[in-house]
C-alpha cells in the first residue's frame, strides 16, 4: 500500500468543521481557520477546485486498489463471496483502507460545511462521498464489517479476561 495515499486519506478524515485543505507536493495538509488563511491560500495558489480534483483522484486510486483486492475473492462457483478467501496481507490492506474510507466520508461531510455556499464544490463532495459509500456497502456484503466487529468483540473478551 502506498504510504502517501493512506496519509492523505487520514488527513481528509481528520478535517474539522471550517478547516480547509492545502496541497503541497502531492500531500494534503489541514489548513485551520485563521484570519490570514484566505491571503495565504491566494499567495500559494491554493484553490478549492484543485483540492477537490486531487481528493477525487486520491479516492479513485484508493477504490481501484480496493476493488482489485475484492474482485479476486469470488469463489469457484461464482456465487459465494467470502472475505476469508483474501490473502492475509491484502486483507490487512483492505481493512485499513475500509476504516480510513469510513473516516473520509465523515471528513468530507465536515469539508462540505466549509464550502456550503458553493454548490459546485458541495455537489462534487457529495459525488465522492457517494462513491465511497457505495464501495463500503460492497465491502459489507462480503463480510468486512462483520470481520471487524467479531475481531473487536474477541479483543474485548480477551481484554476482560486479562483484567479478571
Automatic annotation (TrEMBL):
Please report the name of this protein according to its UniProt entry.
Uncharacterized protein
Question: What organism does this protein naturally occur in?
Answer: viral metagenome
Q: What is the lineage of its organism?
A: unclassified sequences, metagenomes, organismal metagenomes
